[in-house]
Amino acid sequence: MVKVNGALAQMGISREQFDAFMAKHEGAPPANTGPVSPGYGTVHKWRVMAHRTAGSVCGAATAQLKGGMGQPMWFDTQAAAMQVAKHYNEQCTSRNVFYTVEEYRGH
Prior knowledge:
single chain
């Protein structure tokens, strides 16, 4: 439990927020399925994108931020995604890497 609480603290999430999130999403489809619309029309989600500039030794690249087990992270609100992007931008020590928020509207 201490390891989980430490990881949550690093992300700026309280244990209460985590427990509320887990209770809300219990029984939800796995995160790696992406945003899913069970026949209700367009899904509106937010995601954090990691960008590496051409100045990087590895070259330019863009990818969606992934969570535990390599699953893409999806957010219900722009504010939640912005909080995560801000956290990663503040923690990043490379000037060749930065994080942005992107809107996703799927079917």
